# Entry
Amino acid sequence: MASGKSSGRRRSTVFAVLALAMAGVGTLPETAHATVRGRINYGDGLALPPQAVIDIELADISLTDAPGLVLARMRLSAEEDGPIPFEFSVPSARIDQKRTYALSARISYGGKTLYVNTTQHRVLTQGAPLKVDLRVERVAA
# Structure
């Protein structure tokens, strides 16, 4: 997954890595981190505009009658086509094993959303994976 170009691209394109917005009880020591990684796939064959941005959020979606509480955010620039790699490192103390977490992704350009995920991608707890491929679908014009 990591070529020299991809690794350098990730380092240079992360605008905001983590915005911790919740407190929880983890099962690992305070210094430990959970790392969630994956790729954004938009596979409709079209190239993204060079100024497009990819926003990824990790949220606690445990409450069914409320919007998810964002645990972490990341913004990447779309510098190349194909699956777009991402990686979050979250302090384990912020993760409650009894709660449910999910990733969401959005690709936008000029303030307009081009792609968004339409299925839920659970991660971190309750048997959910730490590695995920997020499929985003084109938004109707």
Summary: The mean pLDDT is 75.
